[in-house]
Amino acid sequence: MAKIVWVLTLGMLTAGCNTVEGFGKDVNTLGSKIEKTAKDVKK
């Protein structure tokens, strides 16, 4: 579980979000990508 949080944090830092608003948008974007990837993997 902690590893997932670390990956998300690293991803957000890499995306370069400097504001809280940007942070929220990046979380949503990453969440969508992760969901899509999970669905693709299950096929």
TrEMBL record:
Keyword Signal: yes
Domain of life, source organism: Bacteria
Keywords linked to the UniProt accession: Cell membrane, Lipoprotein, Membrane, Palmitate, Signal
PROSITE patterns tied to this protein: PROKAR_LIPOPROTEIN
InterPro entries listed in its UniProt record: Entericidin
One of the GO biological process terms: response to toxic substance
Gene Ontology annotations for the cellular component aspect, listed alphabetically: membrane
Family: Belongs to the EcnA/EcnB lipoprotein family.
Protein name: Entericidin A membrane lipoprotein, antidote entericidin B
Species the sequence originates in: Candidatus Nitrotoga fabula
Record lineage: Bacteria, Pseudomonadati, Pseudomonadota, Betaproteobacteria, Nitrosomonadales
Gene from which the chain derives: ecnA
